[in-house]
Amino acid sequence: MSSTRPSTPPTRSASSALVHVNTLLLQDILSEEKWQKRLTDADRRALSPLFWTHVNPCGRFEPDMNSHLALAAVAATLPGPRSSSEVETARSAAKDATDSAP
User: Fold this and answer.
1) pTM of the predicted protein model
2) Distance CA 41, CA 27 (A)
């Protein structure tokens, strides 16, 4: 009998969110000129968004309310909601592709 750790969708979602936030943190820090000059190529290769020492998995999290992530720049690059005509065009294209499939 093998024991495996169950991987539930909420766990995967939380892990994905943590990696995403960590990536944003790294990008923000690495955009500072002092870090660009200080890090060597080997340092850059060793960087990974897979860290969690700043998170307590038991539920206690103390955010720094005096600072924030610069997410406005990221939000500006995301596409907005589709218009009804764009939705209809996408549906038609999908239907045509399904109808023409062998």
Assistant:
1) 0.42
2) 16
The two structure tokens encoding residue 101: 């499939």
* Helix H or strand E encompassing 73: helix 72-77
Spatial separation of the C-alpha atoms in residues 17 and 69, rounded to whole Å: 14
Q: How confident is the model at residue 93 (pLDDT cuts 50, 70, 90)?
A: confident
What are φ and ψ of residue 8, in 5° steps?
-95, 155
Sign of dihedral through CA atoms 21, 23, 26, 28? negative
Q: What is the distance between the alpha carbons of residues 56 and 100, in angstroms, rounded to a whole number?
A: 52
Beta-carbon contacts of residue 80 (< 8 Å; ≥ 6 apart): none
**Which residue type does 91 have?**
R
